Amino acid sequence: MPYFDTASAAPLHPVARQALLAALDEGWADPARLYREGRRARLLLDAAREAAAEAVGCRPDELVFTSSGTTAVHAGIAGALSGRRRVGRHLALSAVEHSSVLHSAAAHEAAGGSFTEVPVERSGAVDPAAYAGALRADTALACLQSANHEVGTEQPVAEVAALCAEAGVPLLVDAAQSLGWGPVAGRWSLLTASAHKWGGPAGVGLLAVRKGVRFAPQGPAGERESGRAPGFENLPAIVAAAASLRAVRDEAAAEAVRLRALVARIRSVVAERVGDVEVVGDPERRLPHLVTFSCLYVDGETLLHELDRHGFSVSSGSSCTSSTLEPSHVLKAMGVLSEGNVRVSLPMGTAEADVDRFLDVLPGVVAEVRERLGAPVSAPPSPAPVASLVVDALGRRCPIPVIELAKVIGEVPVGATVTVLADDEAARLDIPAWCEMREQEYVGEEPTDRGSAYVVRRLS
After folding, report:
1. What is the DSSP string of 7-64?
2. Quick one: pLDDT at residue 379?
3. CA 189, CA 70: separation in Å to the nearest integer?
């Protein structure tokens, strides 16, 4: 069964498994102790730290191991903000950061601080000039991911890092998705990562803080990991994480070329074989293994279930697959279609035949889901068009509001409008995206007693 969701968690690398089993026998003792078993454990921990620091591109004494990538993000942001509290309490971040960064920003604001979200272009990347514009005299920290976890777009980290350095603001880079493919370029100040993203065991994160960066760890003080990650080190998992990071880096150059070609094939074939689809993310500046696309008139949850039934494990940013029924904040910030969203992230070693079979299965699955939902094959014009129409989709979830819009747009003359009444949060994103895809005019949104009224003008 092809597993195409390595952006969530990569399969355990064989080297990680070997290192983990060996370290369970050799690294069980307390590395802080001076007796023989403790010294042996300390040697393993030091070797793992040196290997991880080499991969990150920092000094070993600048890097600590945490219990997860999320913990590393929270500790890094809190420590940097506290260390520079005399400068101010403002935080800058992009609108497409991982939820761990957004949660840290919300907690900072609740505690009396402030933050600015830098918008992104439709590709998902920030404009360095726009990011520089968000930096203020009281900005204590800036955050920017190296590559997006949902659409694969690589961020201009080096350019933003240079602008932050010029402004005297440290930059924290969330490198969870990219570190397995190579080091992060630029003059970053702090960096975080998560081992299960590159094939290491879950429960190991990295936090690197450059010398000279003011940093004050928060919470009760600990004696381990320079006081930045209290608690007993999970030494076997740490050893496995460092070993697998070195192993995937050795394979990365060749695999990146191979997987980039497979992803390029997915991007082109999906657009050819599946009608009314939007392939999102930057087509060039992107991770080599990840591609995301959204299909009009498709219930994302049903689509994922059907693909799973055919043997493919994929992910989605669609609101239809979320318990909150809200579209992905990443897709929302990009202004792209969210309904019927599919994220394919290929693990190293993915067979070309598995990708080909996925591309053979996908069009039929999408067509079946659309037929089940009553989506239009096309929007035939009415022989007697009316001046305007109102579509009541209140209480109906994505992609029904867009499907109902597509059914009736041909019933109004060119220049007339269709108003869609909807209370599904995804409609705010998906109706404008549909208009752009179908070359119709999105007039705007008006509040109503229940939900909103979305007005669309027919142009063709």
Report:
1. TT-PPPPHHHHHHHHHHHHHS-S-TT--SHHHHHHHHHHHHHHHHHHHHHTS-GGGEE
2. 42
3. 18
Selecting among 143, 164, 320, 435, the annotated active-site residue is 320
Q: Which of 237, 432, 458, 266 is nearest to 362 (CA)?
A: 266
Query: Three-state DSSP class for 67?
Result: coil
Nearest to residue 207, comparing CAs of 164, 252, 238? 238
Alpha-carbon distance 339 to 49, whole Å?
43
Summary count for the chain: helices (H), strands (E): 12, 14
Q: What b/e sequence results for 12-51 when a residue is b if at least 16 CB atoms lie within 10 Å of its CB, and e otherwise?
A: bbebbeebbeebeebbebebeeeeeeeeebbebbeebbeb
DSSP secondary structure, 75-128, as one string: HHHHHHHHHTTTT-SEEEEETT--HHHHHHHHHHHHTT-EEEEEPB-TTSPBPH
Using DSSP's 3-state secondary structure scheme, residue 311 falls into: coil
341 and 446 in contact (C-beta within 8 Å)? Answer: no
- Any idea what the Cα angle at residue 62 is, between residues 59 and 63, rounded to 5°? 100
Q: Which of 80-84, 259-263, 350-354, 444-448 shows the lowest per-residue confidence on average (mean pLDDT)? A: 444-448
pLDDT tens digit sequence for 198-237: 999 999 999 999 999 999 998 777 767 777 787 888 999 9
φ, ψ dihedrals at 418, nearest 5°? -120, 130
Number of Cβ atoms within 10 Å of the Cβ of 332: 19
Buried b (16+ CB within 10 A) or exposed e, 305-321: ebbeebebebbbbbbbb
Among the listed residues 122, 158, 176, 148, the one whose alpha carbon sits nearest the alpha carbon of residue 10: 176
Compute, in degrees rounded to 10, the torsion defined by CA atoms 182, 144, 106, 89.
120
pLDDT at 228: 78
Q: Tell me, yes or no, if 320 is annotated catalytic.
A: yes
CA-CA distance, 299 to 369, in Å (whole number)? 7
AA letter at 48: A
Single out the residue of 398, 393, 332, 420 nearest to residue 150, CA to CA. Answer: 332
pLDDT at 177 over 50: yes
CA distance 222 to 233: 12
Cα–Cα distance, 135 to 239 (Å, whole number): 38
